[in-house]
């Protein structure tokens, strides 16, 4: 494997990506490409590895229309192939931590007794947060997963548009999130750019390295 070539391709793909405003309504994401995105997001970093959120992948056209109305009629909601809705827990319960520890024990072929130190640390930390602190912390974790989605999609030459411009309460109502102990935090539309989206032909604008970085 030529790592130098792969690195160059990755940087090239990051230059290629942009927040797509006009999607090709006729191009659907294949199941194979969707699976690659789902696995990429599943492997996202998360504090303690807890992943205190769920992700809804909206394909249904009627649901997308409802979400579009709750996002001030931005066309990406219905023109894109899919809508990813990241929703963090409203309240992190002890059962969430227990489920995570059971998953660790099963995956790593160990016992819960061997995880007692980790269990005490997680419960003494996370369960001591107020519900508001838990929601803020959980929402931050969804943004880590969103970043992985954007980066992975660029690598696979799939277009995305991350979006915060939506009515959180209406999204929660449409997707019945409150009854699932969830609240929407951020969304991303996914599909393929339209040739009519002129933004794709513009140079990417970012801070220079000297402006952005301080190396001590």
TrEMBL record:
Q: Which UniProt keywords apply?
A: Flavoprotein, FMN, NADP, Oxidoreductase
Which parts of the sequence belong to the Nitroreductase domain?
15-192
| Cofactor(s) of this protein | FMN
Under Pfam families, the record lists: Nitroreductase (PF00881)
Q: Which InterPro entries match?
A: NfsB-like, Nitroreductase, Nitroreductase-like
Query: Could you tell me which PANTHER family the record lists for this protein?
Result: NAD(P)H NITROREDUCTASE YDGI-RELATED, NITROREDUCTASE
Q: Which family does it belong to?
A: Belongs to the nitroreductase family.
Protein name, UniProt field: NAD(P)H-dependent oxidoreductase
């Amino acid at each position: 494997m030529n790592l130098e070539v792969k690195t160059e391709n990755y940087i090239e793909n990051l230059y290629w990506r942009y927040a797509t405003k006009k999607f090709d309504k006729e191009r659907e994401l294949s199941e194979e490409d969707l699976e690659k995105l789902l696995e990429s997001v599943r492997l996202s970093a998360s504090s303690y590895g807890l992943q205190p959120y769920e992700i809804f992948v909206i394909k249904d056209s009627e649901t997308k229309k409802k979400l579009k109305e709750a996002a001030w009629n931005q066309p990406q909601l219905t023109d894109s192939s899919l809508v990813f809705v990241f929703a963090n827990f409203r309240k992190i319960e002890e059962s969430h931590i227990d489920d995570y520890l059971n998953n660790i024990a099963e995956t790593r072929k160990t016992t819960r007794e061997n995880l007692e130190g980790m269990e005490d640390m997680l419960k003494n930390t996370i369960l001591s947060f107020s519900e508001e602190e838990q929601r803020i912390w959980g929402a931050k974790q969804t943004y880590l997963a969103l970043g992985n989605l954007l980066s992975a999609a660029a690598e696979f030459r799939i277009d995305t548009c991350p979006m915060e411009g939506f009515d959180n309460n209406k999204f929660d109502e449409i997707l019945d999130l409150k009854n699932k102990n969830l609240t929407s935090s951020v969304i991303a539309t996914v599909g393929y750019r339209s040739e009519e989206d002129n933004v794709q032909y513009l140079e990417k604008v970012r801070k220079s390295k000297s402006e952005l970085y301080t190396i001590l």
